[in-house]
Design a protein that fits this description.
- The chain is mainly β.
- It has one domain (4-281): Beta-galactosidase, Chain A, domain 5 (Distorted Sandwich), CATH 2.70.98.
- The protein has 2 helices and 23 strands.
- It has helices at 42-45, 250-255, and strands spanning 4-7, 11-16, 22-28, 31-32, 52-55, 61-62, 67-69, 72-74, 85-86, 96-97, 103-108, 115-125, 128-137, 143-145, 148-154, 158-167, 178-179, 196-211, 215-222, 227-232, 238-244, 263-265, 270-281.
- Strands 5, 10, 11, 12, 13, 15, 16, 17, 18, 19, 20, 21 and 23 form a 13-stranded antiparallel β-sheet that branches.
- Strand 7 and strand 8 (72-74) form a beta hairpin.
- It starts with a strand and ends with a strand.
Length: 283
C-alpha cells in the first residue's frame, strides 16, 4: 500500500492516499501522538477510530433517511451503530496524488445527489503541521456542505478547548448552544472527562494539548465559521479533537435556520478550512 511521508527534523507525518488520504502516523520529536494501528489495513476494517481523516461533504451525524433539500433527495445509508450517517463519504475512498503534492478526490452524485471535489494540502515546516482542506461544488445546483479533520490523539494527554459556548451533546440532534459551564468548561488545561460535544466562540489557538514529558500542541483553525468537536471515552485510549465548519446535525440545523448549520455552496463555489498544529518540546 502506498504511503506518503512529510517530514522535518521535528515532525513525521505518514499519509495513506488509498485509504481516504488519512494520516496514519503523526510523530513529534520521535514520539507517536496519533492512535496508530500496527497494520495499515486496520483503518479499512475500523475506519472511525484510528489516525486522522477528512470529513466531507459533512461532519458528525446526519439522519440516515430520505430528506429533501431544494429539488433534490438525500438518502444516505447508515454507516454507524447508532443508525446515523456519520463523517461524510471520503474517509475510505482512494484519493489521487497531484504533481504538486496535494491529494484530491471526487465523489457524490449518488445518495448524496451533488458531485463535489475535496482537496487536502499538507505542509510540514519545522515544528508546525498545516492541513488545508477545500470542498468544491461541481454540480449545477446549490449544495449543502461541511468540512473537517478528525484526529485521534493518544492518551494520556491534557487538553484545553478555548471556547466560550458549547453544543453539549453531539448525539442529540436538538441540542442548542449554551455558555460553557461545569464539565463542559474546558478552558483550563486538564484531563478531559467522558463527554462528546462541540465548542464554538473560539479564541486562537482553539485547542491546547499536552503530553507529559513529551510535547505540547497548539491548534489554530482558519475558516469562515469554526467549531471544535471533541470526544473522550474510558473505552478508547485516545481523544478526538475535530476542527470543522459546522455544529452536529448540520443539515437539520440548516433546514431549521439555526446557528451552526451546513454551509450552502453555489455551483463551483469552495468551502475552505485550515488547521494549524504547532508543536513544542517539553523537558
Amino acid at each position: 500500500m502506498r504511503a506518503l511521508t512529510f517530514s522535518s527534523e521535528a515532525l513525521e507525518v505518514v499519509v495513506l492516499p488509498e485509504i481516504g488520504a488519512r494520516l496514519h502516523r503523526l510523530r513529534a520529536f520521535g514520539h507517536d501522538l496519533l492512535r496508530t494501528p500496527d497494520q495499515q489495513n486496520v483503518h479499512e476494517a475500523d475506519p472511525f477510530f484510528w489516525g486522522a481523516y477528512v470529513m466531507a461533504p459533512w461532519c458528525n451525524r446526519l439522519a440516515a433517511r430520505p430528506i429533501r433539500f431544494g429539488p433534490r433527495r438525500i438518502d444516505l445509508p447508515s454507516n454507524f451503530p447508532d443508525g446515523s450517517a456519520i463523517h461524510g463519504q471520503v474517509y475510505l475512498r482512494p484519493w489521487q496524488v497531484r504533481e504538486d503534492g496535494r491529494l484530491t478526490v471526487r465523489a457524490g452524485g449518488d445518495e448524496w445527489p451533488w458531485r463535489y471535489r475535496v482537496t487536502q494540502h499538507l505542509i510540514v515546516s519545522g515544528a508546525e503541521l498545516r492541513i488545508e482542506l477545500e470542498l468544491t461544488n461541481l454540480d449545477d445546483e446549490p449544495m449543502p456542505a461541511g468540512l473537517g479533520i478528525h484526529p485521534w490523539f493518544r492518551k494520556p494527554v491534557r487538553l484545553a478547548i478555548h471556547g466560550a459556548r458549547v453544543f453539549p451533546d453531539n448525539l442529540d440532534g436538538g441540542t442548542r448552544q449554551q455558555p460553557v459551564d461545569g464539565p463542559l468548561d474546558l478552558r483550563a488545561l486538564g484531563e478531559m472527562p467522558d463527554i462528546d460535544a462541540t465548542w464554538t466562540d473560539l479564541s486562537d489557538p482553539a485547542v491546547e494539548l499536552v503530553w507529559p514529558h513529551i510535547a505540547d500542541v497548539l491548534i489554530g483553525v482558519e475558516a469562515s465559521t469554526t467549531f471544535i468537536a471533541a470526544a473522550s471515552s474510558s473505552t478508547i485510549d485516545a481523544i478526538a479533537v475535530e476542527p470543522q465548519t459546522h455544529a452536529p446535525h448540520g443539515l437539520r440545523r440548516l433546514q431549521a435556520q439555526e446557528p451552526g448549520g451546513l454551509a450552502v455552496l453555489a455551483p463551483e463555489e469552495t468551502l475552505s478550512l485550515a488547521a494549524r498544529f504547532t508543536f513544542g518540546r517539553l523537558g
